[in-house]
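Contributing new records

If you add data, match the layout below exactly. Sequence lines come first and carry their own label; structure lines follow with theirs. Keep one chain per record. Anything else will be rejected by the validation script.
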Amino acid sequence: MIIAKLQYGLSVAFVGLATVFVGLIILIGLIKVLEKVMGGMNKKQTAAPAPAPAPAPVAPVVEAEPEVDDGELIAVIAAAVAAAMEAAGESEEPKGFVVRSIRRVNNAPAWNRAGREEQIYSRM
């Protein structure tokens, strides 16, 4: 009895695995065929003779830019951000979250309340 169930389970597993691998092999074959078909189309479009190679480009002369001290620019941007934060009412220290009141809402369905109570009472 147990051996028959085990054999049946193994045969189902084998058939499933074989089906998956055969499907993957077919999929790989289709991808290869499409690759050849699409590759042939690209070759037909680019079959025009290649132009003569262009002469090597001459590197442009790059002048060195003078070093600029960005300290003043950074200070101005930081001051602008600080002023914008103060204008928006945000200070550097967060004010936090204040709970004004707590009230229970009992608008949950009966099955929801029963499940919640069952979970709470099962742990006591």
